[in-house]
């Protein structure tokens, strides 16, 4: 019997640490991808809600869209919600579509 053996060796400790590091390197990117997809989904849903709410506001007030009216409505409506991932405020095209500007190419990127 090995009655005098106490604790773990340095090699065993090193092996456990290497295994933990490998698992961490695999898990962190997967979790970050899941978080990014969730944030994208939340922003898209908030933009859809903004479009629906703004359309109802125009109908109830019986007014036509204007940039000033949309900006005022958006500032009152927005309470820290993520609408555009790039942090900018959305805008309304002439056809009534609410868009966000994509920072990568500075072109309007339709969300709806």
From TrEMBL:
This is Prepilin-type N-terminal cleavage/methylation domain-containing protein. Pfam families: N_methyl. It is found in: Cell surface. It comes from the Bacteria. One of its GO terms (biological process) is establishment of competence for transformation. InterPro entries: N_methyl_site, Pilin-like. Keywords: Competence, Membrane, Transmembrane, Transmembrane helix. The chain crosses the membrane at residues 12-35. GO terms for cellular component: cell surface.
């Amino acid at each position: 019997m090995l009655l005098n053996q106490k604790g773990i060796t340095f090699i065993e400790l090193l092996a456990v640490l290497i295994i933990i590091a490998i698992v961490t390197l695999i898990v962190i990117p997967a979790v970050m991808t899941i978080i990014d997809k969730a944030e994208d989904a939340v922003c898209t849903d908030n933009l859809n809600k903004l479009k629906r709410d703004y359309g109802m506001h125009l109908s109830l007030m019986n007014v036509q869209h204007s940039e000033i009216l949309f900006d005022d409505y958006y500032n009152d409506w927005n309470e820290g919600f993520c609408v555009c991932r790039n942090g900018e405020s959305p805008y309304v095209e002439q056809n009534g579509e609410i868009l966000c500007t994509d920072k990568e190419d500075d072109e309007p990127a339709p969300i709806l």
